[in-house]
């Protein structure tokens, strides 16, 4: 009985060593490498892109299509025409942009 327990422990130790032995790569090390050398530069480049391009251009020309900006009910806040996250520069009302 004790001999089989000893053999089982030895086999378990050998299998564990084979799984992370010298020829195998550690998955945590691989993902850390990917994060540092792929993830962080990608986040930095996308942040730089947002900073440089800024999105401060003029909005597209307003075309009063009938199927857009339909108001069946008024919004329960303000004048009832502006959505909760309304931006007067980018979100037109049914009559057009507020800034123009």
UniProtKB/TrEMBL annotation:
Pathway: Energy metabolism; oxidative phosphorylation. GO terms for biological process: mitochondrial electron transport, cytochrome c to oxygen. SUPFAM superfamilies: Mitochondrial cytochrome c oxidase subunit VIa (SSF81411). It comes from the Eukaryota. Residues 81-100 are annotated as: Disordered. It is a single-pass membrane protein. GO terms for cellular component: mitochondrial inner membrane. The keyword Phosphoprotein does not apply. Keywords: Membrane, Mitochondrion, Mitochondrion inner membrane, Transit peptide, Transmembrane, Transmembrane helix. The chain crosses the membrane at residues 33-52. PANTHER family: CYTOCHROME C OXIDASE POLYPEPTIDE VIA, CYTOCHROME C OXIDASE SUBUNIT. Belongs to the cytochrome c oxidase subunit 6A family. This is Cytochrome c oxidase subunit.
């Amino acid at each position: 009985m004790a001999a089989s327990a000893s053999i089982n422990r030895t086999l378990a130790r050998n299998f564990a060593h084979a799984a992370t032995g010298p020829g195998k790569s550690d998955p945590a090390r691989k993902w850390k490498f990917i994060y540092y050398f792929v993830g962080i530069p990608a986040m930095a480049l996308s942040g730089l892109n947002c900073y440089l391009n800024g999105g401060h251009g003029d909005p597209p020309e307003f075309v009063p299509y009938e199927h857009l900006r339909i108001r069946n009910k008024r919004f329960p806040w303000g004048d009832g025409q502006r959505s909760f996250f309304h931006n007067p520069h980018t979100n037109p009302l049914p009559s057009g942009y507020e800034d123009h």
